[in-house]
Amino acid sequence: MANNKTKNTLIVFLKYPEAGKVKTRLAKDLGDQRAAEIYSEMSLEIINNVLDTSSYNTIIFYDPPEKEKENEIRNWIGKKEVQYLPQVGNTLGDKISNAFKEVFSSKSKRAVIIGTDCTDVTSETITQAIKSLTDVDVVLGPAVDGGYYLLGLNNHTPEIFKGIKWSTESVLNQTIEKIKENKLSYELLNTLQDIDTLDDLNTRFESFYKTAESNS
């Protein structure tokens, strides 16, 4: 829940890094254990990159939602300045909608949700999205694969999460159609790369090395 320090909230959706339960497409090439290790490393990197206690509160919504997992996730993440809550709902759309409902019921004015698939997301990305929410109803961060790595709202709007074919290349376009149907304004951020497959991972490392070389 948002505290009185700020009215902006970052929601991070996170899974416990259990082998065979995360990064299943990556696991087809690297195996369940290595895929889970990569997911764990990516998650820690992203959370470190997005933490900004002066601009917004951060809440980690975790899955699976069993209470005993909370301590394991707290120990894994190691961040005392964030709050931990379980994901609630049957579908991904339900879980996202319920997370937004939670933060808006706790007096948050603007809220942004991210997952743990895009390592290029930073606190600057979140701040930009929050700033845009002063002018539009919805902010979307398009992913290369047709989904989105970020979604921001200034009101709980459950309609835009209904009827979406999750984990497909049409998620972004379907969401934009829902936004238009509900006569909401929106803005798109820069398109970024999620890391779901071995090709995505290799592309990410190629980009990293090219950036390092250009800065040297």
Short account of what is shown:
With 216 residues, the chain is α/β, with parallel strands linked by helices.
What are the SSEs and their pairings?
Elements lengths: L7 E8 L8 H7 L1 H19 L6 E7 L3 H11 L5 E4 L5 H14 L4 E5 L8 H10 L5 E5 L5 E6 L17 H11 L4 E3 L9 H18 L1
Parallel strand pairs: 1-2, 1-4, 2-3, 5-7
Antiparallel strand pairs: 4-6, 5-6
Helix pairs in contact: 1-2
Helical content (DSSP H or I, runs of 4+): 40-55%
By CATH, the architecture is named Alpha-Beta Complex
Biggest sheet layout: 7 strands, mixed
Number of domains: 1
CATH topology: Spore Coat Polysaccharide Biosynthesis Protein SpsA, Chain A
Number of strands: 7
Beta-sheet strand percentage? Answer: 15-25%
What is the H/E order?
EHHEHEHEHEEHEH
The low-confidence parts are 208-216
The average pLDDT value, as a whole number, equals: 90
Q: Find the structural class using helix and strand composition.
A: alpha/beta
Number of helices: 7
Rg: 17 Å
CATH superfamily: Spore Coat Polysaccharide Biosynthesis Protein SpsA, Chain A
Shape: globular
If strands are numbered along the chain, what order do they take across the biggest sheet? 3-2-1-4-6-5-7
Task: Provide structural commentary.
- This protein has helices at 24-30, 32-50, 67-77, 92-105, 123-132, 171-181, 198-215; strands at residues 8-15, 57-63, 83-86, 110-114, 138-142, 148-153, 186-188.
- The chain has 216 residues and is of the alpha/beta class.
- The chain has a single domain, classed as Alpha-Beta Complex (Spore Coat Polysaccharide Biosynthesis Protein SpsA, Chain A).
- Residues 208-216 have low confidence and may be disordered.
